[in-house]
Amino acid sequence: TDPLVADTDSDGLTDGDEVNKYGTDPLVVDTDKDGLTDGDEVNIHKTDPLVVDTDKDSLSDGDEVNIHKTDPTLADTDSDGLNDGDEVNIHKTDPTLADTDADGLNDGEEINEHNTNPLIADTDQDGLSDGDEVNIHKTNPTLADTDSDGLSDGDEINTHNTNPLLADSDNDSFNDGVEVAAGTDPTSNTS
Length: 191
What we know:
This protein is mostly helical. Helices cover about 35% and strands about 0% of the residues. The protein contains 8 helices and no strands.
């Protein structure tokens, strides 16, 4: 080190603090080579200047700060149940948004509970968002026709006013799809 310069590597930490307090190299700006200077890690980001990935989410501290805009001290920045590294590297979801596709289910729920696609708001393409299917209509967001009556869940709710959980909404022994195809009223057991 240079005894005439308090911070030989100009990383924002004095040589004395690097050696005695943080265990970092006073001759190297970024001791752990994660893309953040030792000084920025200690003074700004509160990350460990000796560890490439402070929160152990499989993203380096530098990539979290400089590329993904995630918190390098939290493994799951958006608190959706998926760690940032998995969101970026496996699922391709946004680690800063709990609900990447804005369908009313967070990314973790989509992947871990409902087996829906967190990048597509309507996984089964039936005209209802995954969140509405799960939270409002109680239909299956991975099946376009939950009750297998020949009408999509979206058509039952948005067009025919039938129950997407019952194949025969009016209980007349003819399923809703058959009635619609025949031109009869699937909501009236007298048609």
